[in-house]
Each structure stands twice: as C-alpha cells, then as structure tokens.
Amino acid sequence: MSSIKHIQQEEKKTSELLLIVLLFGSIGAITWAIRGTAGWGGVDGTVIPGLMWGVLWYYLAYRKGIDARGIILWLGLGIALGGELGYGQYVSWIRGMFYVGNETIPIEPWLGYMWFFICGVGWAAPGGILLGWTLNNSVSTRIWIVRFLLLIILLVLLFAWPVVDWLGEILLKTNYGLLFPNIDMGIYTERLGKHLSRTVYTNTQNFAVVIWWVATLLVAIWQRDKTTVITGLILGIGFGLGFMQSALWTLGYGFASDYIDWWKMWELNAGFNLGILYVIILYWYISQVNREPQKETNSKTHNKIIESRNTLFLAFVGTLLIYFVGFEYFFWTGLALSLFYLMAMSLTIIGNSDSDIIIEKRKSTLLIYSLFFLIFLLFHGASERLGIILNLYSLDEVAQYSWPVERIWLFVPVAIIITSVAIFKIIKVLRSSAQNEIKISIQSYWIIDLMALIGFIGVLTIWPAKISVFYAFFLMLAIFSFNRLEHRFNINRLYKNDI
Questions:
Q1: Cα–Cα distance, 17 to 283 (Å, whole number)
Q2: Is 29 helix (H, G, I), strand (E, B) or coil?
Q3: Integer angstrom CA distances of residue 448 from 169, 452, 453
Q4: What is the pLDDT of residues 226-271, one digit of tens each?
Q5: Torsion over CA of 322, 324, 328 and 334, rounded to 10 degrees?
C-alpha cells in the first residue's frame, strides 16, 4: 500500500510540474512576443515578461507557504538588461548570407547559430545572476559591495556605447574570425559601413557580456554562493540553447508570409523556452527553502542595522536599474518612475525601530511597486497601437517611439489612475505598524485578471495580424493550467485541515 501511495504522490508532483511549465511557458510566450512589438524599446519591453514571471513565481511560492514578495521586481529588472543586446544580423547568417555594403558574401551557418547561442547567454545571464543575488541576500557588506561593482561593470558594457566601440577596436586587432566572420578577407576597414559596423558593435557587446557572466560566476564560486552559480548557469546556458533553437523559425522567411509571422513565432518560442527555465529554478528554490529553515538571530539592534543596509542598497540599485529601463526611450517618465521607487523604499526604514517591521514594509512595498510597474509599462507601450486603431494618429507619427499630443492625452488618464492606486497602497503600508496590516498578498483572481489584460494588450499591439490567434491559444493554456493548479492547491489545503 505504501508503494502505491508513493507512486500516486509522484504522479501528482509530475502533473503539477507539467501544469506549472505550461503556465510559465504560455505566459512567457505572450509577454516575450509583446516585448518585441512596436511601442516598447529593448529593455523596457523585456521588463514585462520578467515581471510577469516574477508574479507567477511569487504566487506559487505563496501557495506553498513561502514568502517571495521581494522577488518580482528583481526578476523583471534582471532579465530586462539583456534587452539591450542585438542579434538581428544573425538571422541572415544562419541562412548563409553575410551583408557587406549592398552585397552579400557567403558565411558558414554554424557561425550564426553560435552567435545566437552567445547572445542568448548574454540576454538571460544577467537575469540569472540578479535572481541568485536576490535569493541569497543574507550576505556581508563586503559581498554587497562586490555585487554592486559587478553590476556597474555590466551597466557600462550595456549602456556606455563609447566603451563598447573602444572594446571593438581592440578586439578587431586580434584578427579573430570567430569574433568577426570573414575578417581574413580584409573587409573590416576604417569605413565599415552600416552592416559591418553593426556586426562589430553587436558581437563585441554580446561577447563582453558573456565574459562578464563567466567572471561573475567565478566570483560567486569564490564567495561560495551556490545559489547564484546555479541560477546563473541554468538561465545562461539554458537560454543560449533555447534562443538558438527558437531562431530556427526565421528559416521560414519567404514561405506563407501572408499567414505566418515567422519572427513572432520565434519570439513566442523563445518566451516559452525561458519560462521553462524559470520553472526549473523555482522548483529548486522551493526544495532548498523546505530543506533549510530560516535562521534566527537574537540581536534586534544588529538586525535593524542589517535590514536598513539591505533596504538602502535595494533602493539605490533598483533606482539605478529602473532609470536605465527608460532613459533611452522615455527619459523623464523613466526618471520619475525611478525616483518614485527610491522614495517609497527609503520611507520603509524611517521611524521603524523593529527590523521585522522594516522587512515587512520593504517586501510589501516591493510587491506593490512591481505590480504598478508592470501595469504601467503595459499601457505605456500599448498606447501606441491603441491610438492608431482609434485613428488618433498614423503609424509614421509614432515611429521611433514618438509621443504626439494625442498619444499623451490617451495615456495620461490611465497613468494617473495606476499611479494614484499604487501611491495609496504604499502609503497604507508605510503608515501601518502591525505586521498583519503590513503584509499583503495577491489573490488568485487578480492573477487571472492580469493574464487577461496581457492577452488583450498582446492582441491589440499586433492587430489585425493573423498571428494573434496564437496569443489567444497561449492565453487559454495559461488560464487552464492556472485554474487546475488552484484546484490542486485548494484540495491539498482542505486535506491538511481535515488531518
């Protein structure tokens, strides 16, 4: 009888795992495709799938008795950094075409696949590293300082364009064909032209971020930070392979283009792949939490100092990252979003002598801001296509992320409502003194509402493209799997209460 019961339990675990894979993969497919749609840039668009995975991560952990309120924002910002990396020219490389000026010359397709892998590693690796840091945040001040320096180096590689140009000039002198294909033909001259300039810059940046990833993993090994090593390896190598695989859809260019958007198929596939990787890490994380109980300390004064330090560090780093989300495409709005976050986080330590209160206020504030940030960015990008559908302006008027007056008037009322609700919720948390009043959670029906909103915005932003049927399909799978999971969680809870 015991063996039969064990088999049944294993079957339930496997069934639950498959449902979570379906949930994360389906939501990942929709949001990653939204990321690549007009209305969003590189980094700000990639925040959306990251934040939504963070919401699902938090909720599933919550249903298993684990508090993960603080993880949403960092998961979103971590994966978003990869949005600054380019990869467009690799599409022609895997088809054997290398552009030079107005002509093409042959290239071995395997070089294109190799660079898709490198780009995939560079895209997801920062997210894996930041996720590891978030999960393992009870560390010394020295380790926090090292992490901060590593983050600054990464931001320089991603956003300090003159530095990347300088590195490219140095790497060109190596005359290395794997870094710069066909360099032996002498085509990388002083006047590179559009295509070769893009190749030098993109390959240099992708390569530099991968080197940063390797160096950061070595630092984590030296610091005995197993969590960051595991999350960094799974997301880095996993998405390198997943990104390379999903790029195969672009080989369909030229076939049935009236019915299939091959680029969108690639994005849907890539988002599904990355969602699976987050499920793997989620399950590992839950097993570690269940195996290692929370450590307690007797020094309240020491705890307050530590938690104040942690809060200020998270406030400063988060402000920096949120600023870089918007500085390229919506500078002043991005600056306002980052300052809003800085103020909200800083206020969580003012007037609080109890470290437990600081922790609770910090986590609840992070949860509120994360949801606000996700919904704000969803409507911010969607306003572009909504105005076109309503005939308020043409596509040309909003090209290159422009904001005509009509788009501003369309978005501002929504922004005011979203921001007002977030401010009201955060003030309520900050003014509370009892832990049961500070600690907030997301209800299951909110998750359903959020998924429905994402599905609607996804279809809106590509309307009237036929590919929208896939958005509806993945939304159906996401809601189906979420409802089945909710049913399982409720049954398990009733069963435990009966016992």
A1: 9
A2: helix
A3: 50, 6, 9
A4: 999 999 999 999 999 999 999 999 898 878 777 788 889 999 999 9
A5: 20
Buried b (16+ CB within 10 A) or exposed e, 308-344: bebbebbbebbbbbbbbbbbebbeebbeebbebbbeb
- Listed residue (240, 406, 324) closest to 47, CA to CA: 324
Residue at 433: amino acid letter: S
Angle at 470 between CA 465 and CA 471, to 5 degrees: 85
Residue with tokens 């859809």: 249
Q: Whole-angstrom Cα distance, residue 13 to residue 21?
A: 12
- Is the pLDDT confidence value at 147 over 50? yes
What ranges in 329-354 are assigned the alpha helix state H? 331-346
More confident of the two residues 395 and 9: 395
Each domain of the chain, given as residue ranges in start order, spans: 19-290+315-498
Of the candidates 265, 107, 264, the one whose C-alpha atom is nearest the C-alpha of residue 183 is 107
DSSP 218-235: HHHHHTT-HHHHHHHHHH
Quick check: 246 and 261 in contact, CB under 8 A?
A: no
Helix, strand or coil, per DSSP, at residue 36: coil
Q: List the alpha helices (DSSP H) in 88-225.
A: 90-93, 109-135, 141-159, 161-172, 193-222
Global pTM exceeds 0.90: yes
Query: Which residues pair with residue 172 across a beta bridge?
Result: none
139, two tokens? 């560390």
Instruction: Compute the half-sphere exposure of residue 405: CA atoms within 13 Å on the CB side of its CA.
Output: 0
Q: What number of CA atoms fall less than 13 Å from residue 246's CA on the CB side? A: 25
DSSP 98: E
Question: Two tokens at 342?
Answer: 């800085």
Rounded Cα distance, 496 and 499, in Å: 5
Q: pLDDT tens across 50-80, in order? A: 999 999 999 999 998 899 998 999 999 999 9
List Cβ neighbours of 14 (8 Å cut-off, separation of 6 or more): none
Q: In the chain, what is the greatest distance between 2 CA atoms, to the nearest angstrom?
A: 77
In 3D space, the residue among 341, 323, 333, 259 whose CA is nearest the CA of residue 72 turns out to be 341
Rounded Cα distance, 111 and 117, in Å: 10
Amino acid at 314: L
List of residues 6+ apart from 228 with CB closer than 8 A: 128, 129, 132, 133, 136, 216, 217, 220
- Lookup: tokens for 281: 């890490």
- Residue 404: both structure tokens together: 């005509």
How far apart are alpha carbons 216 and 209 in whole angstroms? 10
Joined tokens for residue 375: 């919904």
SS3 345: helix
